[in-house]
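User: Please predict structures.

Assistant: First:
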Amino acid sequence: MIYRIIIINNHPADVAAFAPPTGHGVLYELIRVTDGIFLFLNDHIDRLNHSAQLAGVELALSAAEIRKQLERLLQQNGVQTGNIKLEYYFLAGKVQYQAAYFIPHHYPSDKDYRDGVKTSLLVAERTNPNAKIEQAELRDRANRVIAEKNLYEVILVHPDGYITEGSRSTIFMVKNGTVYTAPEADVLPGITRKYILQTCRDLSVHLVEARIAAGDLPGMDAVFIAGTSPKILPVALADEYRFDPANITVRQIMEKYDKLVFIMNSDDQDSKDQVMT
């Protein structure tokens, strides 16, 4: 956590008051805010509700209430840009504790976007991948590998040998102008992923959702990761395998996606103005 004020059970509180229950499941969302605008907020709320349904959890807050909480968090801390984590601790289908707070963020540099980043393969399986639920053991493993190898991200490989997603991102691969990604049933249905699929349709880029064997990765022309913080970020290395961060298909998708984000930001500003008035 960063900054002094967090929201606990709908009320502002000092960060020292954070005391979540132990032994509970945790639903969560990570929301990026830029200049006071919550990026794709309605999509995040829809996914939160979907995750709750998959986990058999009743959520009491409406979209308007969540937005109001986040607005209060910004106001209390005097902050307009960063990453906010929403957490819902649940037991026996009921939410017992709620929290919203800022977490440290690392947005890629211009050099990262230009030259690509380093990744590594990690054999690991996310249980119930369609639901955004904390899996501490997997997160800890991924973070250790990222720190030890000085990586930006790890690419998860299912024990059966196919690529699924990143530890905190979606993975896309490009070969001869065709974009490949794992089927939705195997991964978290990411919001950035959703709009990349739309971007590919808008650009008439052929996209295939299929299980891609890790052994096929070296034959790809390009790889990119996508998520709340990085948006669309080219990969230069996955272990010893090299890819082209300047791949024309990747660059076209990046440019089109950035334009879409600008449009969605404008829409969100309209929604924000309505709430504030």
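Second:
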Amino acid sequence: MKLQSGDKAPAFSAKDQNGNQVSLEDFKGKKLLLYFYPKDDTSGCTAQACNLRDSLPALQTAGYEVLGVSVDDEKSHLKFINKYQLNFPLIADTDHKMVEAFGVWKEKSMYGKTYMGIVRTTFLIDENGSIERIIEKVTTADHATQILG
């Protein structure tokens, strides 16, 4: 089942880069920019994370909390955050529960090989936990403009 605008966001509870439990409930009454990305410290994912980092004040002014998610582990996330001074948490979805619940774990192909991976997708979730908007065609280097524009 594919999620759509207006749907309730799937409930989640997972660990961030510091091992702290983070859940959808933590964002009740706040807007959440929940973005799924394929892999820490790769070119597109770095461009996207740095764009969100640099745009965080504008995103917060618009009312958004930012949360990134990939299937990398906590150690990888911490290294990625420290290397690029990221100013928002990253969720380590190592058991794939979130990527499956949000429908972003799909078959992909590169150089003629098919494999399962995260399809880069951003969910904008309102104060009541409903999905306001889904961005599937992400412009990594200018993602904040897509969100705020």
